[in-house]
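User: Structure please.
Assistant: Input sequence and predicted structure:
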Amino acid sequence: MDAVSSGGEVQGTGADTVLTGLIGMDIQSSRSPDMHMREAAAQGIALRYELFDLAGADHAAANLAATLDTVQRAGFAGVNITHPFKQSVMALLDRLSDEARAIGAVNTVVFVAEGRVGYNTDSSGFAEGFERQLVGASVDRVVQIGAGGAGAATAMAMVNLGCRDLVIIDPQGDRADDLVSRLPGNIARVGRDLAGELSGASGLINATPVGMEGYPGTPVDTALLRPDLWVADVVYFPLETALLRAARAIGCRTAHGGDMAVFQAARAFDLFTGHRADRERMAANF
């Protein structure tokens, strides 16, 4: 149900209600509305979070632009952006955060007096979740599978967490090359030999959809895993992927994708409301 009428007016909200939402395709099962509204209620903030599902719409790019125009005119504080618009939305914004520019994707748009500002909270969300689940884990040498939007975010998180040697492997080699070229610090490189790279790695990140519902299996041969290797997954549905289950079975420390989902939402909540979300409460309610 849209919060905006055809005339651009918000329906059923008070003047002090913070209006936010999510723009994407096939997003009816999103947990974002519940996460944002429950945290707002706990803080005594009136907040409404709406879904703008453009699935099946003709001319998706035009519909994205029109939806952004509509919610901005209606006084929304901002909106989250998800598949498949995280890159195309960038051309519709007035300013990007340094992180969003480096990552090459936006998942949060905030409306301010100067216009539309794009952020990427996926990266900080992954970093927060990593530090919460894998306390003290070494990031000296990390192998990452996947160089798409999620992979760009997790790679930047590794840079910010102090990784010294980040190996990016992607079936589409040009995507890995492009991501490595955009990351700061000269710590990232493209890998070709997964087995060889994993043999000396501290940890492994799955930044692909393999393991989620509809994409069964594991992104790597689990015979390559070792007990001293930590394994992190961006997938959160299910929380225990086949990769994580196999890793835990041999004694690996693991991190599921649920915290990334929670903490990217928490950072977006901070930006939308000006109030810091309680991370532990949001994680407990996930």
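The chain is about 35% helix and 20% strand.
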